[in-house]
Amino acid sequence: MNTTIRTAAIAFAAMSLATVAACSSSTETSPTTSPTATPTASATKVGGMTECTEIEVSDAINHALQEGGSELISLDKLDCADGWAVAQITSGSGTSDSEIGDVEVLEAEGQFWVVQDRDKVCGTTMDNPTTAPADATIPASLWQAGCTTS
User: How confident is the model at residue 70 (pLDDT cuts 50, 70, 90)?
Assistant: First the structure.
């Protein structure tokens, strides 16, 4: 086999493996997104193989909520930047009177999105916040949406 064909075969095999790894399935069900949802995120790669998509972020949020006895009802808005995501969500325990709106902040860690404690990643609380404080770890572009709303 000549060098050009062997190099092309190796490149094709590597791309095929990467595609299979990126397309692995999950047994968890994803919540439905409300018809009024306005996700502004794109499916760009961040933090390794993790993508900022409604499905991947919803799965991480739903897993965290289920540990507390609640579930994700809808992901209403999604913004992503620099390996971080801010999701405006509706969650509850299964009845319409238990539904609440909330904001979740997530950070990409390798192949996974991890829900973060907003008190830790938003930095020092300020009386009249307009810009991210110097000690915030969330990107400044997401700070307003992730840290000044509830």
Answer: very high
Phi, psi torsion values for 22, nearest 5 degrees: -75, -20
Q: How far is CA 91 from CA 86, 94, 95, 131, in A?
A: 15, 9, 10, 28
Half-sphere exposure of residue 66, counting CA atoms within 13 Å on the CB side? 10
Say how many CA atoms lie within 13 Å of 48 toward its Cβ. Answer: 11
Q: What is the pLDDT of residue 44?
A: 52
DSSP 87: E
In angstroms, the CA 135 to CA 88 distance is 23
The neighbouring-strand residues paired with 46 are none
- What is the Cα–Cα distance from 42 to 5, expressed in whole angstroms? 35
Structure-block tokens of residue 45:
């790669």
Alpha helices, H only, 1-79? 3-22, 54-67
pLDDT, tens digit (0-9, with 9 covering 90-100), for 27-62: 333 344 443 444 445 455 554 568 899 999 999 999
